[in-house]
Amino acid sequence: MNHDLTTGKPETVLWKFCLPLFGSIVFQQLYNIADSWVAGKFIGQNALAAVGNSYEITLIFLAFAFGCNIGCSVLVSQLFGAKEYGGMKTAVSTAMLCSGEVCLLLMLVGILGCDSLLGLINTPQEVFADSALYLDIYIWGLPFVFFYNLSTGIFSALGDSKTPFAFLAVSSLTNIAVDILFVTAFHMGVAGVAWATFLCQGISCILAITVVLRRLKTIPSAGKPALFSAALLRRFAVIAIPSVLQQSFISVGNILIQSVINRFGTDVMAGYSASVKLNNLVITSFTTIGNGISNYAAQNLGAGKLARVREGFRAGLKMVWLICLPLVALYCTCGRALMHFFMEDATEAALSSGMTFLRILSPFYFVVSAKLVADGILRGTGKMRQFMAATFTDLILRVVLAFILSCTALGSTGIWCAWPVGWTVATCLSIRFYCKGDWNDKAAVIQ
Is the sign of the CA dihedral 153, 154, 155, 161 positive or negative? Predict the structure, then answer.
């Protein structure tokens, strides 16, 4: 069901809208967590390292899908809030056509260049073949990744966060079962892990696209909407391109950091692979809540209700900090047990490395979550330059400090210390940019 985010108490509206989004991203993360869990539990530590190593490269492709998701979602939210339903439908078809072309180009790049990328990040020889195999299968499933992300963006733009949650809950749980079946019963190894994800993502994508297109047909509009609009493409690109660049550079930064980590051997690689999955579950969840706040801000921008934006920021901040409390406590006290979930025969060195990572990063979730809420407001109101400035500051600091600190007596621990510094500086920037906004004047915001 579609929901208008421009009416009602902002705190109540955001809780009802964002909690299903939070649940959705938890289940979406189960796709990769399931891959790592099955690889580590039923194949071995090297398989876990191979899947984790490949994951950093898959994030580059996900960056483009995420950017298209944000561009489509914010644009559709603004048009939905303004009740321009014909333009909204044209925006959807325009975004799908553009995203499809981007997806095909990325598939070509991936098919031709993934082995080179694995070499660039110093992938150890003992995990190279499995990493390459996992990536090859993943790339053929990129259309499912792209169009599923577009569908969830459209659902969110229409104020519906429950439908994508239902799709993800079913497909993620199915993915775990198929992972185990392919690896234990059919003895397919890392290929089984990749094919299970391919099949389950494909099914969820087809279902999501079908439902979202039917949903759009029920929304009345004057005349037959155009299939493509150059003007709407430009508006889509203004949001999507900075989002793609942001996520792409973050992915490239993560690959550079992975190359530093790989120098410390498979124990540190495996420990990082397990602990970073737990970390990414949190960060991606907060990013998704930030996306929901973007939809909230965009709908209110379209409706000309900018005074509600500031209320939404305060409500969003309260929400993420309440979610932080149990997560930080869990990771600091039970991180070792959670890492055992991924590794059957984990070495003490791998567990110790991963646990150090979690204990250094998790207290700073309170900091980075505030940044992601402010970023949601900046994106939803079109403040993309400010959003990118804060994000790139975080990335550059993390990468540079990872290289520098890893060469000191801190060793691999120095890499983990780079995260809190980048997060803290970037959070200060994002909140400063948010505070400079005039949330009572629509014309001032969109300039």
Answer: positive
